[in-house]
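Sharing a chain and its predicted structure for anyone who wants a worked example. Both blocks are below, sequence first, tokens second.
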Amino acid sequence: MDVTAGSIHWLYLFFVGAIIVLLTLRRDTTIACLLGIGAIGWIASGTASGAVGGLFNSLIYAIKELSSTILIISIIVAMSRLLVATGINEIMVSPFARLLRTPAMAYCGIGLIMMTVSFFFWPSPAVALIGAVLLPVALRVGLPALGAAMAMNLFGHGIALSGDYVIQGAPKLTADAAGIGVAQVMEASVPLVIVMGVATTVAAFWLMQRDRKTGAWRDGLVQPGAGSLFGAPEEGGADARPEEAGDNAGKALPLAAKRAAAIAIPLLFALDVYLLFRLDLQGGDATALIGGTAALIVAALSLLAHRGRGLERSTTYLVEGFTFGFKVFGPVIPIAAFFYLGDSALPALFGDSALPAGSHGIVNDLGALLAHSVPVSGAVAAATLAAVGAITGLDGSGFSGISLAGSVASLFGTALGHGTDVLTALGQIAAIWVGGGTLIPWALIPAAAICGVSPFELARRNLKPVAFGLVVTTIVAIFLL
């Protein structure tokens, strides 16, 4: 293929570098992304009006690409709010409480339950589903509140979110940016997620036990009531949860109905998982099955719990879910819009003439150029992806920068001639472990709030285990390339 790069390639590379610098400085990248889209659009269209219109259309393109992901997250959160309001969540996890008899069992038990629930509900809602019930049990057997928060973070926001095998939001973002299939990314991520999870969680528990024996442990407790899992809405405000607004759904729902729902909901999702494998459903089809099941649960439980007000309350839960979804993915849209230009969005928005003849996309062209000009090894590529992923996670989202990780993985994979899937998975894991809720203090608020600990102390305790896990996982990725 033609490996020459034109001005549009170097401009794209310049803005990628600028975005990385801003992420390193912990500054917002939205303006840089919008400027990059406008500048590239100007060159691609040749007119200022084309650049301005292309900027808006690129955002539309990104929203279309992300719409299924935003929708599934919103519906899952709506369902989790409903389960918390009705008290069904307490019954769902209560059978596991009797198994937690030692600090080690409590740490692993909370972590594994959190991980399992997070695969279906996402970590932040999962904290609400299990934290309030299992935390008192963990404290009674000697696990500190900070240790419980660590388990929730590392197993939920770390292992479950970095793999995201059920909802598939993370692998879709990285796969789209890398120009490969979602299934490829998920398959490549399995050994890396396992290595990262085992290395990090074992190291965290060992360090906690060591520091407790030597007296270096600090519980990091804050004043109870200082935080709230879902924020602190004003009384009677639009964001108030239904039970706070005077409709006590938890008490209105009979105990027998709660128990039936607590059994039926896991069975429904277990059936979904069976159908995913039985019918070989992946990507959008898998998301649709999980999302449709959650939406039906919201509708049925709203009518059952709120009776005459069920129609209105179902809307309230969905509004809360969509508010959460767009709040989380709002910063992602401009970033994704920019990085989609490196693959399929540019010719789709500005026509095939936007790129030189023989071009295979900006990222592929740059990768081919790199392969012909600079010797690239697997070790260099893996270390670079781990660093890029970690840097993109510094904004505390974990998701806003994984499109960049996918684009860089495509570039190095093209240069190496193989390994794009492994590099993409590595970048995804690094970005989400750093920014998805294990290291950045403002991303730790859900688990920290429900455990009553300082998010800054929680981030400090997670730092060494996560850094150790990233080093080990990067080394393993080098051998998998």
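Comments welcome. The chain is about 75% helix and 0% strand.
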